[in-house]
């Protein structure tokens, strides 16, 4: 399975931003963030991109920021993980029948990847999905993730409308479930409540 190299330069803007952060935060991860969890899992969670002071610092998806606090608490509650989540990748947390990745592997400025950056990283998502031979369910966190998954399956985005809680049959035996992203902004504005987010996993 193909994955971005630690010094990936496919996207010039992201590469430049990563190098600036390596200088500014030399003791942090500051590289394309690898996926977390086994390829044999039946569930794949796809986020947007690493957060600057979250996964970009820690080197594990959704680790070190508020979005991860909610995501991992939910996965632990519904038995998709065991151990203790402590905001760093060496906390011993283990995923169960679940894998987590991002549509874009490098942190983007202002947390906003461009369309070309999303499309460039799409090949990595395609190969990841292809390598997950037991995959049954994909949970997309946000519209960018939803659209990336649609493209990974060569579907027209217009044929599958994003909505929180929406379910889409996107391939033989594979269902996509949409959720609003578990970001601090979405939860603070009550666009996404803890109950709404837990319902996504309660209904899997």
How would you describe this structure in keywords?
204 residues; globular; 6-stranded mixed sheet; Uracil-DNA Glycosylase, subunit E
Please count the helical segments.
7
The total number of structural domains is 1
Give the number of DSSP strands.
8
CATH architecture: 3-Layer(aba) Sandwich
Could you characterize the architecture of this molecule?
This protein has one domain (29-202): Uracil-DNA glycosylase-like domain (Uracil-DNA Glycosylase, subunit E, 3-Layer(aba) Sandwich), CATH 3.40.470. It is built from seven helices and eight strands; from the N terminus they run H-E-E-H-H-E-E-E-H-E-H-E-E-H-H. Helices cover 34% and strands 16% of the residues. The model has no long low-confidence stretch (mean pLDDT 96). The radius of gyration is 16 Å and the shape is globular. The strands form two sheets. It has a six-stranded mixed sheet, covered by helices on one side. A two-stranded antiparallel sheet has the order 3-4. The chain is of the alpha/beta class. A hairpin with a 2-residue loop joins strand 7 (167-171) and strand 8.
Could you provide a short overview of the structure?
The chain is an alpha/beta fold.
Question: Secondary structure elements and their pairing?
Answer:
Layout: H1 12-24, E1 36-37, E2 43-47, H2 55-58, H3 66-77, E3 81-82, E4 94-95, E5 98-102, H4 115-131, E6 137-141, H5 143-152, E7 167-171, E8 174-179, H6 184-188, H7 194-202
Parallel strand pairs: 2-5, 2-6, 6-8
Antiparallel strand pairs: 1-5, 3-4, 7-8
Helix pairs in contact: 4-5
């Amino acid at each position: 399975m193909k994955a971005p190299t630690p010094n990936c330069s496919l996207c010039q803007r992201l590469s430049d931003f990563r190098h600036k952060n390596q200088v500014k935060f030399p003791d942090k991860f500051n590289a394309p963030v690898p996926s977390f969890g086994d390829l044999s899992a039946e569930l794949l969670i796809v986020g947007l991109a690493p957060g600057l002071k979250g996964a970009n610092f820690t080197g594990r998806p959704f680790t070190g920021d508020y979005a991860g606090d909610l995501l991992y608490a939910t996965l632990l509650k519904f038995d998709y993980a065991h151990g203790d989540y402590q905001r760093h990748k060496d906390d011993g947390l283990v995923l169960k029948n679940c894998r987590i990745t991002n549509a874009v592997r490098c942190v983007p400025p202002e947390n906003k990847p461009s369309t070309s950056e999303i499309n460039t990283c799409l090949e990595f998502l395609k190969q990841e999905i292809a390598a997950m031979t037991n995959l049954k369910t994909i949970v997309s966190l946000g519209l960018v993730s939803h659209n990336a998954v649609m493209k990974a399956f060569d579907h027209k985005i217009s044929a599958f409308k994003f909505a929180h809680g929406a379910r889409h049959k996107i391939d033989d035996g594979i269902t996509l479930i949409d959720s609003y992203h578990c970001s601090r902004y979405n939860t603070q504005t009550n666009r996404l409540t803890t109950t709404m987010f837990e319902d996504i996993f309660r209904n899997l």
